[in-house]
Amino acid sequence: MRLVLATRNAGKIRELERLLEGTGMAVEPCPSDAPEVVEDGDTLAANAEKKARAVHALTGLAALADDTGLEVDALGGRPGVRSARFAGETATDADNRARLLRELDGQPSRARFRTVVAFVDESGALHTFVGVCEGTIGTQERGTSGFGYDALFIPDGYDQTFAELPLDTKNRISHRARALAAFVTARSAGG
Asked: Where are the extended beta strands (E) located within the chain?
């Protein structure tokens, strides 16, 4: 099966390609002429579906997209669906991390990454899969790998941030890995 990734985020592309290795799916990058999708949905699922449907409509191929949110308990679940734009519409990952640290004011907090993977199959049918990784937001950035909030997020059972962990470890335990594992299991079962 040919599968088009509905993202231009280089960090996500690397993770998705690696997580889908050995599945028998021919993973293809997002076409350069794909429209820029405005992620204005009220939920992660709505944003993921919007991206997958746009790429499926353009290519006629199966498309896979995800949307991920960081839910921080001390902030009432924020930034959540607005994680990529937490510090503003044009914010960088560094801007978002800095705002999060300011709002937490030096206090660690329980948090979780939640990923929703939307898969639009060849016929246009939508399938969604969820992955969650529980952890803690640290009080300072640590590590240089990864992207987004990885340098702040310490997954349960570890004392390193996602940005400090070896990539193979992160790809085994992450929210995205769990959502994709559910997708791959469903595809293997014919779903």
From this structure: 2-5, 26-28, 62-72, 79-80, 109-120, 126-137, 153-155
Structural contact between residues 97 and 85, judged by C-beta atoms closer than 8 angstroms? no
Lowest mean pLDDT among 8-22, 68-82, 110-124: 8-22
Q: At what angle do helices 175-188 and 10-20 cross, to 10 degrees?
A: 40
What is the value of pTM for the model shown? 0.89
For residue 27, how far is the Cα from the chain centroid?
17
Domain that holds residue 150: 2-188
Beta bridge pairs of residue 110: 136
* pLDDT score recorded for residue 62: 94
Please say whether the beta carbons of 186 and 62 come within 8 A. no
Query: What's the CATH number where 138 sits?
Result: 3.90.950.10
Tokens of 87: 């510090």
What total number of domains does the chain contain?
Answer: 1
Residue 147 scores a pLDDT above 70: yes
Return the active site residues: 67
